[in-house]
UniProtKB/TrEMBL annotation:
One Pfam family cited in the UniProt record for this chain: PRiA4_ORF3
InterPro entries in alphabetical order: MM3350-like_sf (IPR024047), Plasmid_pRiA4b_Orf3-like (IPR012912)
Protein name stated in the entry: Plasmid pRiA4b Orf3-like domain-containing protein
All copies of domain Plasmid pRiA4b Orf3-like, residue ranges: 4-170
Superkingdom: Bacteria
Lineage: Bacteria, Bacillati, Actinomycetota, Actinomycetes, Micromonosporales
Record-linked Gene3D superfamilies: MM3350-like
Residues annotated as transmembrane: none
């Protein structure tokens, strides 16, 4: 049976200008592998907890203390819970609360000449880890954009001199996906 590929669009909720990615992933991937795809495509470093919500059901890494009621993401293949047009949510870092809206834009048969997963497109850099969620990111962007802002120098140093919120390279994201997923 030929492999099914899902074309997913991931958008970071609550952030303007928009930060998004379009990726191709095998339908046979489990949710834990999709977690890694989101991490590498968006530019996160996988330093925090995460969960998926699909049709009202929460998936993630089971909590040994039982405080979070999550179904095990290792047991769930994409092609068993998703199809073309499906919408679902991925939350990363329960402190900063980064919500990602995901949509299956298309589903098709894998091209035997292509390697998956891959990143087709996207816009803007991912916010730095631990910036304080969408509101903290807005403050960072304001400080970086205005050299007269009282936090400009401190935020520039904290974010790293090379941080450019407008920069995104889908080719680099594809390379990371192929090596790390």
């Amino acid at each position: 049976m030929p492999r099914q590929i899902f074309q997913l669009k991931m958008s970071l909720a609550g952030v303007r200008p928009p930060v998004w990615r379009r990726v191709l992933v095998p339908g046979g991937y489990t949710l834990d592998r999709l977690h890694r795809v989101v991490q590498h495509a968006m530019g996160w470093r996988d330093c925090h907890l995460h969960s998926f919500e699909i049709d009202g059901v929460q998936y993630g890494v089971p909590d040994p203390d039982g405080e979070l009621s999550l179904r095990d993401e290792l047991d769930v293949r994409l092609d068993t819970v998703l199809g073309k047009g499906s919408r679902f949510r991925y939350t990363y870092d329960f402190g900063d609360w980064w919500e990602h809206d995901l949509m299956v834009e298309d589903a098709f048969t894998a091209d035997p000449e292509e390697r998956y997963p891959s990143c087709l497109d996207g816009e803007r850099a991912c916010p730095p880890e631990d910036v304080g969620g969408p509101s903290g990111y807005l403050l960072l962007l304001a400080a970086l954009a205005d050299p007269r802002h009282r936090e400009h120098a401190a935020m520039r140093e904290w974010a790293g001199g090379g941080f450019d919120p407008a920069r995104f390279d889908p080719g680099r994201a594809s390379t990371l996906l192929r090596h790390l997923c």
